[in-house]
Design a protein that fits this description.
This protein has 275 residues and is mostly helical. Among the domains are: 6-61, Homeodomain-like (Arc Repressor Mutant, subunit A), CATH 1.10.10; 134-194, no CATH class. The protein has 13 helices and four strands. It has helices at 6-9, 19-32, 40-44, 50-61, 72-85, 89-94, 101-118, 134-140, 192-196, 204-207, 226-230, 237-245, 254-262; strands at residues 162-165, 174-178, 188-191, 224-225. A four-stranded antiparallel β-sheet has the order 3-2-1-4. Strand 1 (162-165) and strand 2 (174-178) form a beta hairpin. It is elongated, with a radius of gyration of 22 Å. It starts with 5 loop residues before the first helix and ends in a 13-residue tail after the last helix. The relative contact order is 0.10. The structure holds a DNA duplex (21 and 21 nucleotides).
DNA sequence: AAATACCGCAACCGCACACAG
DNA sequence: TCTGTGTGCGGTTGCGGTATT
């Protein structure tokens, strides 16, 4: 027999929040901050447990929440981050400004998962299991490059392509690469799991210590250059972001990063993402 | 129009961890 | 070192809206 919930013990309200409750909670936190969550309901005059208040605030009432449907770029980023982090929704959410872990989790389970499965991709492993899109065909093609900076049939090293997530394509973990070395100006696709991550290019995602640091999504003028990765001048995403926005991130210690993501978001909001 | 199925999302549950006493 | 408390996280549930029959 499991233990009873905190709400049961204290005979507190459960279920959907009323507008009045929301108003009380917002008013209290706006005035005093949340401090200890267990004391919030008492101080705010709510018949709820602290946990419930915390969840309501984080997932629904926070003023910096974006709401609305996910953009294609957000979806792309979620897929890429999930490939690296797995079901670490809070860590993924920390890199998507204005989105909550719960929101991302729901979106993943209700939408992205299905899309991936329809594309023959295992949403857990991100491995291609069925119908092979272009990238998979390239992978198994003996003429396919064994190094990223070569194109099939071209033994010469190539000028750096610009990498950006493909929009409106499924699966979304593919990158479209274009550059002068791309014969005929056509585009080819690489699957991130097979090439970008395996080659170490995207391992920085793993290493990122800064929670709450939004990733730059694709777009001008900050597209990543492969040569920057290949020749060792790769910026960490932190440095890159700092340079791009002229904004220095704080400490990377667990405590401070947590403090950033949890309570200092309103004081240290980074520049809005270039979506 | 009514019944049913389906889906998305808000909220709850329970576990793990950190920390203070 | 142990214990209790607070907090955060991932998984799951169930409600309400919409689509379909």
């Amino acid at each position: 027999m499991g233990r009873q919930s905190c709400c049961y013990k204290q005979k507190l309200r459960k279920g959907l929040w009323s507008p009045e409750e929301d108003e009380k909670l917002v008013e209290h936190i706006t005035k005093y901050g949340h401090g200890s969550w267990t004391s919030v309901p008492k101080l705010a005059g709510l018949q709820r447990c602290g946990k419930s208040c915390r969840l309501r605030w984080i997932n629904y009432l926070r003023p910096d929440l974006k709401r609305g449907t996910f953009s294609q770029e957000e979806e792309d980023l979620i897929v890429q981050l999930h490939e690296v982090m797995g079901n670490k929704w809070s860590q993924i959410a920390a890199r998507l400004p204005g989105r909550t872990d719960n929101e991302i989790k729901n979106y993943w389970n209700s939408c992205i998962k299905k899309k991936l499965m329809q594309s023959g991709i295992n949403p857990s492993t991100h491995a291609v299991e069925a119908a092979a899109p272009v990238a998979e065909a390239m992978r198994s093609d003996s003429s396919a490059p064994n190094s990223m900076n070569h194109f099939p049939g071209n033994s010469e090293p190539l000028p750096p392509p610009v990498v950006s997530p493909i929009s409106n394509t499924v699966p979304s973990t593919y990158f479209r690469c274009s550059g002068a070395g791309n014969p005929g100006g056509s585009q080819f696709e690489l699957q991130s799991s097979g090439l970008l991550f395996d080659s170490g290019i995207l391992q920085w995602l793993d290493l990122l210590p800064n929670k709450g640091v939004p990733l730059h999504l694709s777009g001008e003028p900050e597209d990543l250059k492969w040569s920057e990765y290949l020749n060792g001048t790769t910026l960490s995403i932190k440095d890159w972001e700092s340079q791009a926005h002229g904004w220095q991130y704080g400490s990377s210690s667990k405590e401070e990063s947590q403090a950033f993501s949890e309570s200092s978001w309103h004081e240290m909001q980074p520049p809005p993402p270039q979506l």
